[in-house]
Every structure is written in structure tokens, then in C-alpha cells.
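Quick note —
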Amino acid sequence: MKPGANERSQKIKEAFDWFVKLDSSEMESALITVKNEAYLKIVQKYKGTPNELENKVFEVDRAFTQLSQVKRILEDRTQGDDKAHDLVNFAKQQFRAKQYRHSLESLEKAIALGLQTEEVFLLCGTSALYSKQVSRAEQYANAVLKINLMNPHALVLKALCIREKEPSKALEFLEGALKLRPDSEIIKKYREQVLSLLKRDSKILEKDPIVMKRRWKRAKLECELQVNDFATSVIYPFKTLSLSAGGCLVEGCNLPSQFQFTLELKKLGKVWGTGEIAYVQENRFTGIRFLGLDTSDAYKIDQEVSALIGTLLRDRLRTSSSI
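Predicted structure written out below.
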């Protein structure tokens, strides 16, 4: 880049900004004056060569036509930005008046005009959620998180969108938001609501006739359990000593009272959920109770345990028959 290029570019931008703000009648008057001056210079220079004079006059006409077009394009762009911001301000008024569907419509028009910011996406998502358009609200929450993973409002919005279908994951988003805004009472309130959902689902699961009939099998099964302590931002690894879909036993007693966990099953992959301390034994072992596991995850753990029990039984049978 040539020396002083940035400075010249800035001056050119400033000139264009000034040019766009000119009143149309003032600009037309100025263009006519400059255009006539250009004609006079061309006539004086090329009066002895008619063909060359005709070409130069054509070039001047074309240049000034293009200049007028440039101004119109820049005016449209500026007006588009102004209109988008006006729509957002209007949408905020509609939102305050609890006209959430209308607010969403206004915001989406602003997005179509090119105003695509975290604030606008977040307002869209909130308006969509309040107008019971949960899937659209989640899409806007994802759009914000794609721009900024550390936006606490987007984390809360995402959690509210998925709390009914995936309460364990919703709790993870709320814990992340609470880490960023530890004094927020509203986030703490939402967190308590999701914990209530998890406990409700746990009770429903326990009363499920299929579960009551089947009961969760338990076996000595070593899997990796990662406990996420949001208070200290530390992930603690443990090995399970025994496991069932209702909980597990690990060696160690330095766990937080309630936490998110990731369980790595050897055959059926990962399971995510929330757990709490059920008991501590001999200051060495900790019993963990799983809270509100998705039914599919609970059965996944049970299948892994059942497969191990089946293998052990077959081994015993082979051993007995060989004696």
C-alpha cells in the first residue's frame, strides 16, 4: 500500500458522506455549474478537432450521469439503514405494548434491510418466544450464540426454548449464563424452575409402569464420569465403581452437591445429565443420584449394564460346564 493511502481513503469517504447529504436541488445546481465549466474547457481545447470534441462532450455527459446515479445509490443505502433502525425502535414500542407478533414482524423487516446484530436477533428471539413460536425463538438464540458464545441473554433464551424437551441441557445453558451473571436473580429463578422440571421428570420416570416392572439393573461397571462444577469452572474426572440408570458409585468425596455430568459408556456412547450427591460412605466413596435423565439415555445405560450382566452369566455357565 502506498504511503498515505489510508489517509486518502478516509478523505474520499468523508467527501462521499458529505456528497450524499447534499440537498438534491443544491447538488443539481452545483453539477450544472461544474458541467458547464467542463464544457467550456473542452471547447477551448478541442475546437479544432470536431470528432474529438464530440467524444469528450459525450464522456462528460456520461460522467455526470454516473455521478448522479452514485448519489442515488448511496442515498438508498443510507435511507435503508435509517429505515432499519426506525423499524427496530418501532418494534421495541410494540414489544413494550405486548404486541409480540407485530414486534417480530418489524424486526424481521429490519433484518431483511441488512441490520443483523446480536441485539436485533435477541429481540427477535424474545418476541418469538413470547408469541409462542418456540422453534423460531431457538433459531434466533442460535444465531446470537454463533456470533457470541458468551452472550448471557442468548444462553437464557436457548434454555427457555428447550427446557421442556431437554431440561438437562437447558440447565447447562442456565449454569453458563449464571457464571457470566452470578448476581442475576432472574437466571437463578429460571434455574430453579428447570431443576423442578428435572425432579418432576424423575418422579414420572419412577412411576412409569414399564420402569416399575423392569427396574434398573446395577452392575460393577467402570466408565468415565466427568463432573462439571460451574462454581469453580473445573471438570473433575471419576471412574464409576458400579452403575445403573438411577445413579452410580464413584471413589472420591469432593463433589459439588449438584452438578452436570458426562458419562462415557463403553459401547453406547455418551450420556449427559444432572446429578446430585445421594450419600457419602467412609469419607471415600460417593453415591450419585441421576436427576431427570431422558428416557432414551436411561435405557441406554440400562442396556449397557444388562449386556455386562449377560456376559458375566454366560461366562459363569461356561465355567460351570467345563468343571
